[in-house]
Design goal:
Blueprint: H1 3-14, E1 19-20, E2 23-26, E3 37-38, H2 45-53, H3 58-64, H4 70-82, H5 84-94
Antiparallel strand pairs: 1-2, 2-3
Length: 98
């Protein structure tokens, strides 16, 4: 495992996972750039939070991401609240020019 992979694994051990009704927010190197995402999807938490900041409601998100449930969104919002600095960094790294 390379140094970046070791760091990510170590960091994951330090971050408490948010788990509601069996799904988790996870980080996997090589999937979604290693960003925290809803387990079993390629939907990064930063993307959901950015959409919410742009005025999308939970209903809008559920309509556009039919694989998600309300429990998934509640878990994502809990993760955002618990890891605000990480999510801010992820949004900043992934936002394109306005």
């Amino acid at each position: 495992m390379n140094q970046a992979g070791l760091w990510r694994t170590h960091r994951m051990a330090q971050l408490p996972k948010t788990d509601i009704e069996g799904r988790q927010v996870v980080e996997t190197p090589g999937i979604c750039g290693g960003s925290p995402r809803i387990y079993g999807t390629r939907i990064p938490v930063w993307g959901l939070e950015r959409a919410r900041r742009n005025g999308w409601t939970d209903l809008d998100l559920l309509d556009n991401y039919p694989s998600l449930t309300q429990a998934d969104l509640e878990m994502a919002w809990g993760f955002v609240n618990a890891h605000r600095e990480l999510i801010e960094r992820e949004i900043g790294e992934n936002e394109g020019p306005v």
